[in-house]
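This section describes the prediction task in plain terms. A model, or a person checking by hand, is given the sequence of a single protein chain and must write out its three-dimensional structure as a string of tokens. No templates, partner chains or ligands are provided. The sample shown here is typical of the held-out split.
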Amino acid sequence: MSTLGIAIVNYMSADDTAGLVRSLVAHNTDPTAHVAITIVDNSDQQQELEPILEFARQHGFLARLIHGHGNVGYAAGNNLGARWLLEIGADVIWVLNPDTRITGGVLSSALTVSRAGDCAIGATTSIDADGGSRPDLGALDLWTGQSGQPPDRNAEGRKLTYVAGHSILITRRAFEKLNGFAEDFFLFYEEADIAIRCGRLGIPITVVSDLEVEHAGGGATGASRDMKAKSITTYFHASRSCMIFFRKHYGYRLPLAASARLLYAGKALLVAGPKAATAVVRGAIAGLLA
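The expected answer:
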């Protein structure tokens, strides 16, 4: 019997995590499904999280809380969770943000990512503004580092398409081949880094079309497209990770990406104020020196 392992990194988001687990239970309608779940607590919410896991256990999930390690970041937290899930025999790892909800399909559908091969990663889907279904994919401009929607054919080559980080399916073999998430990314860009490494390793990216996930976005980090609402943490770590990404993968484009960050700092100054602009500059410098 195949096992689905679900990894959730919690940072001061126990209420969101509880809502996610309830949605997982509601969509676990296959009586033969074998599901394991781990919550990796990057904060200090053990008392709030234990009842959530007990609820999951009461509904047939194998569940564990990993805590006491402090805030190691999103990538490292997911690696902690995934490694335990692999130890207990998970065939597919499903990384989910606490502020996601399963809104369509059944959990066992996640295992169908293996149809693309025993070494593959996959995206789920979501409902767009027009009520249609779209793959949860993003795109990164490989000259400026700006994220957006997947490109049309005319933009291929300039943009990198990746599986959106809030909901990533990874087969056991793919996780092992990738050696998990790159832990030099504390927040952001880890999914773009995985897409680059998948391309180099020949790991296909697929879409599980009958599994639907809703993502609120920014629940713990304060990430938002509204620059006035965006948190200082997001300004800092997005800039830091952007520089790390270009240093690792596109060093010859680093000067242009750094210049784009400086322009973004100017925009942040005008729209969100000096603290936001300073966070962008500090993050970019930290990424250049990391």
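For orientation: The helical segments are 14-26, 46-58, 74-87, 172-178, 190-201, 232-249, 254-272, 274-289.
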